[in-house]
## 1
Amino acid sequence: MMVQEPGWEFGLDTGVSTPTLAMSATGSLVTTGSQDLGFNVSSETRCSRQDRVPVSVLGHWGSNRGQRDEHPLLALQHLYQHHLVWSIQGWTRPAPLSFQRNQQCEAQQMRGTSIPAAAAAPQHDDGDDDDAIPATFSRDVPRWFLCLLAHFLSATNTTTTTSSTTTGTSSSTRMDVLWTIPPLLLLLLWSSSTFVFYFKKCFYVAWMMCLAVLAIPLCLLKSGGRDVENMRVIRSLVRHVKHLLGLRFEVSGWEHLQTKGPYVIISNHQSSLDVLGLMEVLPDRCTMIAKKELIYAGTVGITCWLGGIVFINRKKTSDAKSVMAEAAKTMLDDQIRLWVFPEGTRNQRGDLLPFKKGAFHLAVAAQAPIIPIVFSSYSNFYLRKEKQFNSGTIRLKILPKIDTKGMTTEDVASLLDKSFNLMRSAFLEVSDSVPQSNGTRCH
Ligand SMILES: CCCCCCCC/C=C\CCCCCCCC(=O)SCCNC(=O)CCNC(=O)[C@H](O)C(C)(C)COP(=O)(O)OP(=O)(O)OC[C@H]1O[C@@H](n2cnc3c(N)ncnc32)[C@H](O)[C@@H]1OP(=O)(O)O
Ligand SMILES: CCCCCCCCCCCCCC(=O)OC[C@@H](O)COP(=O)(O)O
């Protein structure tokens, strides 16, 4: 008796109407599959050769042939490569593809019995946690994509078979796996929202690092060193990144940024994605206050330094205070605007954190107005806990300036309260009205 450990199974409800596939489904592939790959392919018994009825082909990928760690997607690839490539043309409608742990099948596999047709048919989420299709593999994959994948894989198969005559079997296997990566990546991007989440995040960081490599020499050419004017270069380099991540910005209140001279911009801080919104509206001669750790962020850190970003040590209030007092002086001397995140840290809890006092001390010290800018909540497209990063729209609302002329340190508390209340109600307002995710990846 062959004992299979619980594995993943995959189902293709093909709706195929050709006699050839009906044959394959009734058994001829089972032998090939089992012998070559460790597959059991079965189908619904009620399907006959001539009937134009949906056929479910279901493979079970166990660990009996030493492929213990093989991913179900690889198993799917094998199925395509060896059995289904020729029959895909016969598909008559999009094939919903689902992966799930089928405990009934696993139990039967453990006992060494074959999978009955009813158990073999792909099941759908019935709300039961154990049986539920994992969120990562629950999306329908369109027929044309599967066709493309199949053609790609069959082409790969030919290539690697040819190469195996000269380079040997192990390198052909390696090639096989290598060539499998691009379509699998596409399939994962298509089907797994968790994968999309990590992919987009990594892409964002990597892309910013690459852009920064470009930004460094450009900044040096423009200003010869650290200068607020370099922010123009950085701004123009970062502006396209929103398109790559599927984000859209809707900005209102542009007129409030027309204020002349230095001012302090304060905004809420949800994620490093805020940089994209910041670059959307960043006025000329404006730089930021940031935590000092950012300077160590490789090429991005160097770019930040070149852009004139003021780094503070949040853990040492006295240090931070003196750096900000110095910044107030520079603001006036060099006619610079400063962008501060008064929450002092990232926050995505659907509300604003209590503000720190530095930004208001800064504005009072420089006697410069405060311009609050509110970013709508990212929760309609970006959820860190749920690992969701869809495309979406972000509203940026620029609020009227708050004057600080004649104010002293005594007024800092009331200035802070006033700004907080204005921003909080604007945040709730823009977050409420923001359109829901315009991506298609929500479950
Ligand atoms: C193409 C290239 C591509 C490359 C990529 C491009 C790169 C991207 C480009 C650009 C990206 C830039 C993106 C940057 C994003 C970074 C964001 C961050 O890093 S957010 C974290 C840091 N930000 C802050 O922390 C806010 C500022 N913080 C403050 O202002 C705090 O107030 C701080 C640190 C100064 C002190 O914080 P406390 O935690 O100690 O708390 P408190 O209550 O505010 O202050 C304590 C006491 O100190 C007084 N105080 C504070 N500041 C004062 C001051 N300036 N003068 C006098 N007293 C002051 C206060 O009045 C308070 O005293 P009493 O309670 O009133 O007695
Ligand atoms: C090796 C690290 C590479 C990092 C590359 C990052 C590329 C994106 C550049 C955007 C910079 C945004 C910086 C930012 O948003 O920092 C977070 C702080 O505000 C708040 O931090 P925390 O939550 O208080 O620790």
## 2
Amino acid sequence: MPIVKTVSRAVSQLLQSSGCGCGISIVPVRCIGVSPRQVASDASFHSVSFSESDHPRVLITGGLGQLGVGLAKLLRKQFGKNNVILSDIRKPADHVFHSGPFIYSDILDYKNLREIVVNNRITWLFHYSALLSAVGEANVPLARAVNITGLHNVLDIAAEHNLRLFVPSTIGAFGPTSPRDPTPDLCIQRPRTIYGVSKVHAELMGEYYHYRYGLDFRCLRYPGIISADSQPGGGTTDYAVQIFHDAIKTGKFQCNLKPDTRLPMMYIDDCLKATLEVMEAPAEALTMRTYNISAMSFTPEELAQEVQKHIPELQVTYNVDEVRQAIADSWPMNFDDSNARRDWGWKHDYDLPELVSTMFSFLGSDSRIAQAN
Ligand SMILES: NC(=O)c1ccc[n+]([C@@H]2O[C@H](COP(=O)([O-])OP(=O)(O)OC[C@H]3O[C@@H](n4cnc5c(N)ncnc54)[C@H](O)[C@@H]3O)[C@@H](O)[C@H]2O)c1
Ligand SMILES: C[C@@H](O)[C@H](N)C(=O)O
């Protein structure tokens, strides 16, 4: 009995200890073994030397998707080219490979991931690997492995090596029983996609590791992200990127969501700015570890009208994809991000008109606009 009492007192002290995790020295260390793939620290690099400044040394997982290359560019500007390593399981395009350090990393290979963190003295990790909502529904076992098992690997390595860890969540972490207009930070979360379920799991596990082990976990729930120079990876909000390419190439766009489907959206520069800001925010400013961020909300019809201000002859038709429509109908229509705005000064720069004109100036539609006028 005395042993049971001592253990339960220790556990209740742990559970009551505050956010910083001070005094909790236990970390979830897995068996230390020798990786069969031990390589010299610089084996995979075409540029190897880290600066000796105080800059964080950054690893981005899943970095060849829609968001990772842009994030690397922003972070390299801030912290130096060689302090930011992009990684993925895909082969990088030439311009990406030559823009800074790139390394192969499969997040399901725990030892290899640990080796990369150790050999490169990583201090900040941005965990971008994931299968998004539509591709996740098409391959649930793979989505479960990448989004859940992969996250477990990342969490353990981050806790073991005292990293600051950023994991993005999404509007997809909410479901049909959540309040949808607006959706606050704290409310019912019962998503009906494997993507959403894995992201709620990531939010909860990250926060648990923060309170239990003192892990510096930071998480933003992104809206659908719109970018000009990178393609979306198979989500429900992809239509809002595709419309620009089709408008310029063919003047026709077939939308796979109904015209009145309202979803929160954001231009990539705002998304990446928020990501860096929350990672740089002083820990004392963060009253929470998972925040909604928001910029605008629109329907396909409203986006098409704004695009038609630039390409008046654009013809839009609708051919609804039932899987994507059901997902979109269960997601927030508007996102309440007042906590992010209050705690660390989040402020977006792009509303719908600025987003559309910026996309067209990137995609070089000037000649078409001139023709249209
Ligand atoms: N793009 C958006 O609209 C959006 C919105 C909300 C949240 N997010 C989140 O932001 C993050 C990045 O999104 P994205 O749009 O760039 O995704 P993406 O689908 O474009 O890219 C994901 C990357 O993960 C990689 N990957 C897959 N399996 C892997 C594995 N086993 N090991 C390592 N890498 C692997 C893929 O090769 C791919 O390059 C994701 O976590 C996503 O959930 C994105
Ligand atoms: C919203 C987001 O997480 C992603 N773009 C998707 O649609 O799946």
## 3
Amino acid sequence: MHTIRTLGLLTAGGDCQGLNAALRAVTLAAQRDLGATVLGFHDGYVGLLRGDCRRLDRDDVAGILAQGGTILGTGRGRAEQGAALDDLVRRSLQQATALGLDALVCLGGDGTQRFARALAEAGLRVVTLPKTIDNDIRGTEVCFGFDSAVYIATEAIERLRTTAHSHSRVMLCEVMGRDAGWIALAAGLAGPAHVVLIPEIPYRTEAVVAALQARAARGRRYSIVVVAEGARSAADAAAGRTQKHAAALRLVDELQDATGIETRLTTLGYVLRGGAPTVGDRLLATELGLEAVRLLGAGVHGVMVGQQHGRLVPVPLAEAGSGARTVPPEHRWIDALRRLGACLGD
Ligand SMILES: Nc1ncnc2c1ncn2[C@@H]1O[C@H](COP(=O)(O)OP(=O)(O)O)[C@@H](O)[C@H]1O
Ligand SMILES: O=P(O)(O)OC[C@H]1O[C@](O)(COP(=O)(O)O)[C@@H](O)[C@@H]1O
Ligand SMILES: [Mg+2]
């Protein structure tokens, strides 16, 4: 067994459901299996840079499994914006040495994986976990937070359906997903939605209008359009323009003008990231946390714990931190939506 006496722990990037479940699992396993002292850093990598941390014991993680948010706080490190990466890495390592850290576990999204990779390349023992409602981290087929976000989005669509039906309206529902359309696709299938627009498939307004008119012609009283916040029109995509929320904000008027059907917009936004994790996210976050500690105990580091083909696997940080995992055009959820008659805007 590899000796880890002091283990650092932090959550970085946007929060999501399951972070506390993972913090609990890492803390309990690190104490029980490694006999380690756990130091929790506040507000992401900024906490590490400033040595701002506290000791985490059994009592600190009691009762947090199902709690939303992160007891450590998180952040995107904006206070340190402008500093050179080399400088941030050097200062982080100085703090790690000063605090006697033998290893660090980082819970985060793609940005977190990138900085973790830089820390690992500079010599720190690092293991990461994949968190994000966007589900867009490379090297893993699923991230915790995603299942909860899809559950909330699906429930919202169900609620929008009844009011849409009462008023004979088109309901646009904007969900998060800057670079990747995973939430929109899953909620579009489960909701269900009649139109699903994702960043990976630039849309044509005429195609959406035609789909809504065809439904109205079939006597359907309402339609649900799910739009990822990063969805782009074909014209914007061709011009290389991306602006969050642009698609939903523009379409709400464009669709109403073109179809003559009353159209309303609901932006789910941060509601998707808040509150208790689903059972699926509790299990995933807990298992990933336990596996991170097992790997560190076995001397494995410089990896993210991912899931591939249903199995937990160590993924090199070079892969996990190499950019967003977007939806491939041939993904079975895209095929499923098309076969069910949904419009994807193309
Ligand atoms: N390209 C990058 N290279 C190195 N570190 C990064 C990079 N992007 C983000 N980070 C670090 O990771 C932290 C979290 O990243 P961010 O992109 O905000 O969230 P997430 O991890 O959820 O994607 C940032 O505060 C920053 O310290
Ligand atoms: O919390 P912020 O900084 O406003 O960022 C919002 C972004 O965070 C997310 O909720 C999650 O993204 P990350 O996993 O990269 O943090 C995105 O869906 C959304 O675009
Ligand atoms: Mg990110």
